[in-house]
Specification:
With about 230 residues, the chain is an alpha/beta fold. The chain is built from 10 helices and 7 strands.
């Protein structure tokens, strides 16, 4: 959906104006809690990369649109966005838990015409000072560099998404690659509330080892290492 220059976009605090896109792969444990928060007038697309744990059945039973896709998050996000019909887009991971009044929270960040997109502040469900320090470092990176990652969600107008070219069908770094392009259309800011995510990705390798691995992958990507090689390392 493209809005002509000078036309006022619909109110982003109105949940009926949102399409929510959720890429999944084996997310039967995480998906129900997120979909329970999305039982309002918003349009919800669950794009399944080939789950065999009942994720698709859960999505349909809970009222979401379900779409099958190759197992690549960049492809899944792109396919979901192509199906969306509302003027505002919100991309979320399945383990996300939204803040109360999430649409009003996003509206507070997106009403500034100089803002191209907004993400939530990151809060990890888990205990320990390492996770709290991680949250502070993510907050610093987002506020100073405008570089939120996919687990923080990404919200923007559908016309901005389309003009930017949207998510590219990449096997890795699809979130960072899009956010960097969005800087050409305005600021990428943090909304005044947090999304809570599972600690599972940091529990597998440990907070520091996981963060160091991801930092090395991002550096290699900026140096031109093919994404297929990086995806194999990931």
């Amino acid at each position: 959906m493209t809005w002509p220059l000078g036309m006022v976009r619909p109110d982003p605090s109105d949940r009926s104006q949102w399409s929510v896109v959720i890429p999944v792969l084996q997310e039967a444990q995480q998906l129900p809690s997120l979909l329970a928060q999305l039982q309002g007038p918003e349009e919800v697309w669950v794009v399944d990369g080939g789950s065999r744990d009942g994720s698709g059945q859960i999505a349909r039973l809970m009222g979401a649109h379900w779409l099958r896709s190759p197992a690549s998050r960049g492809v899944q996000l792109r396919l979901g966005a192509a199906q969306a019909t509302r003027p505002w887009l919100l991309f979320l991971h399945a383990d996300a838990r939204l803040p109360r009044q999430w649409s009003a929270v996003l509206a507070a960040a997106l009403r500034d015409p100089a803002v191209a997109a907004a993400a939530f502040q990151l809060r990890v469900r888990g205990r320990g000072w390492k996770l709290r320090l991680l949250e502070q470092l993510v907050d610093w990176r987002c506020r100073c560099r405008g570089l939120p990652y996919g687990d923080q969600g990404l919200a923007l107008a559908a016309d901005v998404y389309q003009r930017s070219g949207g998510y590219r069908p990449l096997p890795l770094m699809e979130d960072l690659e899009l956010v960097q392009r969005l800087h050409g259309y305005g600021r990428v800011v943090l909304a005044p509330a947090s999304v809570q995510v599972s600690a599972r990705r940091w529990q597998r390798l440990g907070v520091w080892r996981s963060s160091w691995r991801n930092a090395r992958l991002r550096r290699a990507w900026r140096q031109g290492v093919p994404l297929e090689q990086l995806a194999a390392r990931y």
